């Protein structure tokens, strides 16, 4: 089969031929139709310090996918050949206290497909049946291929009650923009999204009903009276990993505000803890998706009017993967989807 693989410990990815994976008794084999390119894949392409320390070579990359089941392991029940699906790319252990308590997303032994295990940028993917998420007919393969990052957005956005709340999202990357759409969908009052990249803010306005703020040009503090907010924001979703954005968020929060942090700072990131204490702010770190509560809620919302389709700005056949990665690396794109059919 064709596979997009990290063949060498240096910059780049290579299209190669690999054997179709053999499945075990509890696995399924999925024929891949569409895949999404993630920021993680860009780290692996660039072979930065994180990638070099984390990813063994050779490795088939990719973890955002939609496809169809073509083979079932002998123990697999409740799924069938021909079923369209996406799936959770975090492969969890079953031994930890967290897993045994049903908090699968908190299992410390989690391994990622396309990072620690052979991934989805291939014509076929082996996946534990446990990880499969069937797709209803209304959800296209394009959207199926971006459920992983939409799940990050949903998990973060649903961390706190948003109904009637004023929400600040820092970082209008694909995940921040999708989180804005989710915040709107579930009934937030104002949704303000910040970035320093005007193209990203323009895309945010296409996808969701948001107030875009370019913090390279405008002071976030000026937005609070403009929107007739009495104090600051009730809920903050940090989706940039940028130090300045986090500082601005802490300043812009109301007393007792709640912050969910998805963005990953590049290194240690200092925080003015006395501001956190005196403003009585709650901070929650967010990793991945809740398995499978996020998937359930995400699919229910997509079936009930949540529309994030405009976040997909580029589509390429898989043989043009280099163009897809270039679009993603430009910083101007939303999600980039590769077609394997
Ligand atoms: P992205 O890099 O595409 O988007 C980040 C955005 O932040 C960019 O548009 C950038 O211009 C913007 N930004 C930079 N400086 C800013 C500033 N001062 N103020 C406001 N915005 C600023 O990333 P993405 O794919 O949308 O992911 C968002 C973040 O979530 C990244 O940090 C990513 O590493 C992280 N992430 C975390 C998890 C997890 O499980 N915790 C999963 C996926 C992604
Ligand atoms: Zn991803």
Automatic annotation (TrEMBL):
The keyword Acetylation does not apply. One of its GO terms (molecular function) is zinc ion binding. InterPro entries: ADH-like_C, ADH-like_N, ADH_Zn_CS, ER, GroES-like_sf, NAD(P)-bd_dom_sf, Zn_alcohol_dh. PANTHER family: L-THREONINE 3-DEHYDROGENASE. Keywords: Metal-binding, Oxidoreductase, Zinc. Belongs to the zinc-containing alcohol dehydrogenase family. The keyword Metal-binding applies. Its cofactor is Zn(2+). NCBIfam families: PRK05396.1 (NF003808). This is L-threonine 3-dehydrogenase. Residues 12-338 form the Enoyl reductase (ER) domain. Pfam families: ADH_N, ADH_zinc_N. It comes from the Bacteria. PROSITE patterns: ADH_ZINC.
